[in-house]
Amino acid sequence: MSVAARWEKQGDIGIITVDSPPVNALSAPVRQGIFDGVKALDADAEVKAIILICDGRTFIAGADITEFGKPPKGPDLRSVQETMENASKPIIAAIHGTALGGGLETALAAHYRVAVPSAQVGLPEVKLGLLPGAGGTQRLPRLIGPERALKVIVDGNPIKAPEARKLEIIDAVVDGDLREGALDFARKLIDRGAPLRKVRDIQIDASSLPENFFADFRKGLNKLRGFPAPEKIVQTIEAAVNLPFDEGMKVERAGITELMASTESKALRYMFFAEREVAKIPDVPRDTPLRKIETAAVLGAGTMGGGIAMNFANAGIPVTVIEATQEALDRGMKIIEQNYRNTQAKGRLTAGQVDTRLSLITPSLSYDDIAGVDIVIEAIFENMEIKKEVFRKLDSICKPGCILASNTSYLDLNEIASVTGRPEDVIGLHFFSPANVMRLLEVVRGAKTGKDVLATCMALAKTIGKIGVVAGVCHGFIGNRMIARYGGEANKMLWEGATPHQIDSVLYDFGMPMGPLQMGDLAGLDVGARARSEFPDMFPIDPKFPVIADILVAKGRHGQKTKAGYYKYGDDRKAMPDPEVEAIIAAAARERGIEQREISNEEIIERCIYAAINEGARELEEGIALRPCDIDIIWINGYGFPSYRGGPMFYADTVGVDKVHAAVEKYRQLYGDRSWKHSWLLEKLARAGKGFADWKDVM
Ligand code: T1G
């Protein structure tokens, strides 16, 4: 008997209990334990039925993702399932927590399934770039029909137990103690001599499918750029409809084998663990005591401040919003309400929920109203002197222990903290716009930020539905410092002859949600131009390549809002290439003696993406980023870098760090050190033939 799964008898009912924290994933010992338990109990003449149940927080949450890509050990999952399905007595899967992926597939190989009301079941493999590889694509369509099954598997989201009961994925929802409920269910099966119902034997009536069902479904897949799994899933469901079970299983096997080896799936599996890794701060123990955060305040009711306040209200935390004037406060509150009403109109919130959230947001003009809150987040002008003044005030008004956070995107947090008497309570919480939508939160750790403050803010990130990533203090922290290189190279290539449409198209095809120039038009070119003119030292400009956007703004081309920026826009706000812009740039280039040339698509990728990778490598050297996966999480959740490429640092490994390094060296020779500053880490990895996955080996 393996420690991962034990078995016992209670009267004439056998019970196999899986006990493999944290989520009872189907590791080799778990598979071996279930396999041996079924064999032993099936051979025991006294046993009339067998229950498969799990200890801990959940039923089996899937295959053990950490085993992927490693040589298989012990019986594979399909062998375990065959042993279950061919047992001589009924097997009942008793589900709590989440039965996901291989966990649900194991349950589908049982003859019956019961679950507690709070349980959820699902086949989320598509989110890992995979498809259910243990019969899920063949059994689920037999249980709930191919149409529903296809949607469930391509969607990948869990189904709550009551809904799963309706769909007949489970046979009973048991109230109270799951084990007792399962035993009771088993006894009833024995008493009524219930059949050994095998899901694989259920026939699918292909005639019930709407005409052209699969073809029509495929049309909806086009928006899933770069993800091969959904198409493969369609093929397996077609096989379930058209082929015998065992033939369909071969199609499934071929599909998952191909997907498992794909870069897209490796990237998504990497992201799965990366999202969890970034929550771990090497020098901050997991059990660091947290400060309570039961009330909050936000300074500034502008776009950022309003969005930040909504995050707290959404999490049920009362939040006071402070503004300098009644007019600004009223405007801010109006925008907040409008945002909620828009969500309500889309059916994602009820009127009652909106009212509840609005009731949690209190507008105020007085700092006195926030003297007792647990955390204050300053979201006002990006101006150091103004921020210092505000933090002096907060330091004098806020209660001891209150966390004083700045939403600054660029400024030196240590300098802000230095004007307070409590630098250990000062931290940066850099939200990405729109703050109530974007999942990313850069948690900027000052030199004196307390470990408990850091741990509290990382936990708060999770509470308000964000992914918190720790960043050190530097100009632009992790994300914006890298995006400046990315955008800087795009700007240079405009001078050198690439068109806005070419640059944006190449980067869109690479997988970015939108090219940098179209993004600039969307945000408003005047916004960046104003920032550059007000804070020249914050946005150092390469004198050889001034910012084209400033030239366009000077000509009244502010972007979408003026129907002209890098592109021209009709009433439909569709970006159309504008020969006038190309002429403006060409003329400016001639004036500056910059020779224009044909620029290849490959050069655009290298110069924008590799410049960012090089900057990311430098951030690792400086300790600004804790790990390459932190950088990748930031880019995927803050800038829409394609998840199927795993983030810029993961992407560098797939390209080959030596290739990236060679290109960086080439561009440094051509353009100097400004955007291509030397990274000894990149160089060391390249020379060692290693990737960022092994960066610690060379640090
Ligand atoms: N394998 C290995 N480790 C896993 C794991 C898994 N499947 N799921 C979670 N963990 C680890 C996770 O890394 C973390 O570790 C800890 O467990 C707690 O996880 C054949 C091929 C179950 C809903 O995709 O969705 O089956 O950081 O922080 O928020 O067809 O984990 O503590 O060291 O997420 O309470 C399909 C993935 C696999 C489910 C729990 N299954 N897991 O959420 O905890 S592929 C999945 C989850 C497959 C078959 C195919 C969630 C959860 P650490 P957590 P949580």
Could you explain how this protein is built, in words?
This protein is an alpha/beta fold and 699 residues long. The chain folds into three domains: 5-260, 2-enoyl-CoA Hydratase, Chain A, domain 1; 296-471, Rossmann fold (3-Layer(aba) Sandwich); 498-505 and 513-591, N-(1-d-carboxylethyl)-l-norvaline Dehydrogenase, domain 2. Helices cover 47% and strands 11% of the residues. The strands form four sheets. An eight-stranded mixed sheet has the order 12-11-10-13-14-15-16-17, sandwiched between helices. Strands 1-2-3-4-6-9 form a six-stranded mixed sheet, sandwiched between helices. A hairpin with an 8-residue loop joins strand 15 (426-431) and strand 16. Helix 1 packs parallel to helix 2, helix 5 (146-155) runs antiparallel to helix 9 and helix 9 (229-242) packs antiparallel against helix 10 (245-260). The chain is globular, with a radius of gyration of 29 Å. The model has no long low-confidence stretch (mean pLDDT 95). The protein binds (2S,3S)-3-hydroxy-2-methylbutanoyl-COA (T1G).
Structural class, by secondary structure, is alpha/beta
Bound molecules: (2S,3S)-3-hydroxy-2-methylbutanoyl-COA
Number of helices: 28
Instruction: Compute the number of strand runs.
Output: 19
Number of domains: 3
Biggest sheet features: 8 strands, mixed
CATH topology of the largest domain: 2-enoyl-CoA Hydratase, Chain A, domain 1
Task: Pick out the low-confidence regions.
Answer: none
The helix fraction, in percent, is 40-55%
- Principal-axis shape equals globular
